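Homework help board

Subject: predicted structure for assignment chain

Our instructor gave us this sequence and asked us to write out the predicted structure in token form, then describe one feature. I got the tokens but I'm not sure how to describe them. Can anyone check?
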Amino acid sequence: MRPGPHPLSAGGRGAGRRSADPVLGPALGRAFYDRPTTIVARALIGCRLSRSAPEGLRLGRVVETEAYVARDPANHAFRGPTERNRSMFGRPGTLYVYRIHQVHCANAVTCPGEAVLLRAVEPLTVGLGDARGPGRLCRAFGLTRDDDGADLTTGGLRIFAPDQPSRGPVVRAPRVGIRMATDRLLRFALKGSPYVSSPRPWRTRPVPGNPDRVDR
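My token output:
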């Protein structure tokens, strides 16, 4: 039997002619995103976020994410599809961009109604700018609502596999900037990275016997 595409390849259904880059290699394929949201959120740490721009390539290494899952009151899709969140019900690897408090936030859709917030990246190209926090990340990569619904596997914004071994452990902590489900450990970050947004998550610790709550 012929093996199917590896989760880190862009092969299989939905791959396109923009899926490969001569420098970065193949973009993450549909199969990478078509997995449980918490697994994707953790696996994105260390991956490279890329966008072509008139002034050149914008490239950064993902160091922080947040998962938004089913039956999650902090999830924009919690009450079902709307005009605003319809991209969250697209196929895995769809880009969902929304605007809040005059800034934009970018998410990678996993399964219908679930997504991973791209929260912070380490700049890898000169001039990318500060990308600590979802609003700054979108500003650094020039992302707006016009990019909502784009395909992360073949579009102008793509994500590539890590180019180096992990430089430290990934920590889990509660999400920030939300009012509901604030105790769930759905924030993932590269421990010790100066490019992770505030508040730094590595000072929180799980409550013994309860993996979904933490002491602060």
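Reply (TA_rk): Your tokens look well-formed. For the description, you could write something like this. The chain is about 10% helix and 30% strand. That's the kind of observation they're looking for.
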